[in-house]
Predict the 3D structure of the following.
Amino acid sequence: MTLYRYTFAPNLPQAEIETALVLSVIAVEGLHGEAQTRLDGGDMLGRAFGPRVIDASTPAGRDLAKVFTAVLRRAFGEDSFRVERVHPVQPQPANPEVRQ
């Protein structure tokens, strides 16, 4: 699984970040269709403000991450946000030989 976390400069208006995300989702819907985009990344809309995480493990998710990054760069500039790859913690199988 490939996840990207976006964090934003404190002075960025949250409404404009949400608008950038909506525009990005609309663009990705043009490529993958509304249903596929909603399945792969639509739960990002309407969440509480703060960092956003995009699951880029599907083609629609990858395109959403690319488009959102491009829209943020154009609208707000390179220094207005940060995007980083997040490595999700995989649960380790229980070792039956280890007793507590």
Summary: The CA atoms of residues 92 and 98 lie 13 Å apart. Strands lie at 3-8, 52-55, 81-86.
